[in-house]
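wait is this the right file?? whatever heres the structure
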């Protein structure tokens, strides 16, 4: 599977990639704990700021719904709050990015562990321009997930506890890595949806202000 993914890597490049600078993309990651509001905010960013929103969890769920060979394994992982092998999500992201005319991607809920991070850098060959970190208390995340009411197999207290453990053990180190690279934009996600979105818009305004005024094919806003 890794070989198939590698064959196509040159088609998805962004400004931090070494190759193919003529095909520049803007890439923003959205990370945070389960229920921190990543997908809620990403939907609003896509609607208001013209990004293509790619939710890793939704891409995996689409595989389950399509009855693909990976479907059962993905569904079992989701029920257990476990992460699927990186090559699967990389393949799905790659297909979605290549199928989009948009060059501004908002990747929601990936990378979630160090294996994902290595796959993003070495197989997808993407580097985020910025990483939105939705910071929310554990109590509030649990409250939101138990009230989500979307029929998700993982919105029950046993699975939520497992997902929180994966988040604290595996995703926080990824957030710390991007923090050390100066890419994290931390947002207080504990507040009401519109207040959080005001902060999100502020982040994109700052990113736009910081980008070079010339030769910018895909501006942040
Ligand atoms: N700021 C907020 N205040 C109150 N409720 C919120 C807020 N943001 C999102 N919600 C609600 O909390 C629930 C979880 O939000 P959302 O699905 O966006 O979280 P998520 O971070 O994408 O979670 P997951 O990691 O499970 O995909 C949803 O029911 C959503 O409507
Ligand atoms: O990169 C990823 C993203 C998601 N998963 C699996 O999907 C579920 C649900 O994801 P949400 O982002 O919360 O919708 C997650 O718990 C994992 O089982 C993954 O493996 N890798
Ligand atoms: Mg989500």
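ok assuming it is, sequence goes like this
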């Amino acid at each position: 599977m890794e070989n198939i993914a590698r064959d196509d890597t040159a088609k998805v490049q962004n400004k931090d990639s070494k190759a193919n600078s003529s095909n520049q993309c803007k890439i923003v990651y959205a990370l945070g704990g389960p229920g921190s509001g990543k997908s809620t905010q990403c939907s609003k960013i896509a609607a208001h700021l013209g990004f293509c929103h790619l939710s890793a969890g939704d891409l995996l769920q689409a595989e389950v719904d399509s009855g693909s060979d990976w479907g059962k394994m993905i569904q079992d992982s989701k029920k257990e709050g476990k992460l699927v092998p990186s090559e699967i999500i990389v393949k799905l992201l790659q297909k979605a990015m290549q199928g989009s005319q948009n060059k501004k991607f908002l990747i929601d809920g990936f990378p979630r562990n160090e294996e994902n991070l290595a796959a993003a850098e070495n197989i997808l060959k993407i580097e985020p321009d910025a990483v939105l970190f939705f910071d929310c208390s554990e109590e509030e995340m649990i409250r939101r997930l138990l009230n989500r009411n979307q029929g998700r197999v993982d919105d029950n207290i046993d699975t939520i506890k497992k997902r929180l453990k994966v988040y604290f053990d595996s995703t926080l180190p990824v957030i710390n890595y991007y923090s050390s690279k100066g890419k994290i934009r931390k947002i207080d996600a504990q507040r009401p949806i519109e207040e959080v979105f005001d902060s999100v818009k502020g982040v994109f305004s700052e990113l736009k202000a910081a980008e070079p005024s010339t030769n910018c094919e895909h501006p942040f806003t």
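The beta strands are 26-32, 52-55, 104-108, 130-135, 184-188. so i think its the right one actually
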